[in-house]
Fold this protein.
Amino acid sequence: MKQAVFIERDGVLNAIRVEKQQQVTPLTLEDFELREDAAPLLKKLKAAGLILIATTNQPGLSRGYLSRRELDRMHERLRKAFPLDEILVCPHDETDRCPCRKPKPGYSPRRLSNGI
Ligand SMILES: [Zn+2]
């Protein structure tokens, strides 16, 4: 059986701003600043045989202030910087009561591409 590590995206793999004691998620590629210091640790985990999965709640997708295209561009950059196997996104608003919003265990609507 393969083992996986689930890694929070915001604040771990990319920097976040805090405004009025609220975490502000980057909405554009320009605002998306990688935390390169996470790379050596991720490489060690990968070398130990673990599957690396980044997870993130992005309710801005269903609320309309975050575009899927922009998110895809950010995640393309993430995949280049870190040895991630998958990035799971919950695109729902908390009022949607979906099963994929962290910390719930459901998978995102997009199936895992590598069949895990
Ligand atoms: Zn969801």
